[in-house]
Amino acid sequence: MRMSRLMTRFAALVLLGPAAALAGQAEQIPIEQNIVYGKAAGVDLKLDLARPPAADGPFPLVICIHGGGWGAGSKVGYHGRIRELARDGYVAATVEYRFCPQFRFPAQIEDVKCAVRFLRAHAKDYKIDPTKVAALGDSAGGHLSLLLGLMDPADGLEGDGGNPEQSSKVQAVVNYYGPTDFTLTSIWNPQAAAIVVNFLGTKDQSMPIVKQASPLTYVSKGDPPVLTFHGAQDTLVPVDHAKKLHEALAKAGVPEQLEIIPGGGHGFGGADGARTVKLTKEFLDHYLKGKPVR
Asked: What's the whole-number mean pLDDT along residues 269-290?
């Protein structure tokens, strides 16, 4: 029961982030729901898709990944965001993935990699440009988005969900306050420790899985650009996660942008939320559409 309450609270916190910032603002662009993108351990994996109303294409793709401690939350929480992205000329998907503790890491990254491969394999059907794909997520979804951008096929964890001939690596990442390094003492705080154990299956920081699940492990030259938003007062995923990641990205020569929200916690709305939406659009437009930075 204690873990269930923790996960519910975690999911409620992340709803203050990028998905909520657009609630009620997006045009009512149709959403194709519950498209089966793969199957793992007998579970059908589904995504919801929004497409630009224009009949031409192909369009860049943005894959949105919800938070919730890897064990809660819903793809429906990103419906407002994918409609807004579709209005702005992107094909946008919000994906589900298997939850812990029934399915622990690496199930979640295997699933979202499968989603990327599926959408690339069906690029013509959905009018997608498979060379221009971004991942966007909040909290646990930010963590998975970072792994999509920073991992390479040689790192493994591709899973066997289908379309192995397609690449699962994305060309841009927008990370809303995702954990980046499970070896940092700060993530083992009273609020987050039980959630992390639920995800990784261990509290032993010396175990190989701790580094294997950490996006920081995979930073290397040639990685795609990363934009991160993180609250300065986030007590669940402390801001040192964002700072350490972006120091490593800069050192590797990877295009990076870190926006620390003064006074922000684990999720933010209002003017802060609106600003993150604006900066996200500029970032995606620049790296996926070639538009100049304002």
From this structure: 96
- For the chain, the three-class secondary structure string (H helix, E strand, C coil) is CHHHHHHHHHHHHHCCCCCHHHCCCCCCCCEEEEEEEEEECCEEEEEEEECCCCCCCCEEEEEEECCCCCCCCCHHHHHHHHHHHHHCCCEEEEECCCCCCCCCCCHHHHHHHHHHHHHHHCHHHHCEEEEEEEEEEECHHHHHHHHHHHCCHHHCCCCCCCCCCCCCCCCEEEEECCCCCCCCHHHHCCCCHHHHHHHHCCCCCCCHHHHHCCHHHHCCCCCCCEEEEEECCCCCCCCHHHHHHHHHHHHCCCCEEEEEECCCECECCHHHHHHHHHHHHHHHHHHHHCCCCC
Q: Whole-angstrom Cα distance, residue 44 to residue 202? A: 27
The tokens of 5 are what?
């309450």
Specify whether the CB–CB gap between 63 and 119 falls below 8 A. Answer: yes
Residue 38, CB-side half-sphere exposure with 13 Å CA sphere: 27
Which residues are catalytically annotated?
139, 234, 266
pLDDT of residue 6: 46
**pLDDT of the residue at 16:** 45
Q: Topology of domain 2-289, per CATH?
A: Rossmann fold (3.40.50)
For the question of whether the overall pTM of this predicted structure is more than 0.85, the answer is yes
Token couple for 2: 């204690």
Query: In this predicted structure, what is the pLDDT of residue 18?
Result: 55
